[in-house]
């Protein structure tokens, strides 16, 4: 069963953007690995925010 936010166009576009960034970051020189780490941190933050919103909706 698909989750409600999976149908949101903004969510779908955000996931597509994240996948594109991950694909592109594989080609970065090793000295730019910090950028990949920053992307990973941002993705984790977004995931946490989505989980918090999901919990709010479940509590209603």
Question: What does this entry look like structurally?
Answer:
The chain is mainly α and about 60 residues long. It has two helices and no strands. The chain has a domain at about 30-60. Helix 1 (about 10-25) packs antiparallel against helix 2 (about 35-60). It is elongated and about 45 Å long. The two termini are about 20 Å apart.
Unreliable residue stretches: none
Give the helix proportion (percent range). over 70%
Shape: elongated
Structural class: mainly alpha
Q: Give the topology string: H per helix, E per strand.
A: HH
Q: Average pLDDT across residues?
A: 80
Strand percent estimate? under 5%
| Count of separate DSSP helical elements | 2
The total beta strand count reads 0
Sheet with the most strands, sense and barrel status? none
**Rg, nearest Å:** 14 Å
* N- and C-termini, Cα separation: 20 Å
Give a brief rundown of this model.
The chain is an all-alpha fold. It has helices at 9-25, 33-59.
Element layout with pairings:
Elements: H1 9-25, H2 33-59
Keywords:
single chain, 60 residues, mainly alpha, 2 helices, 73% helix, 0% strand, elongated
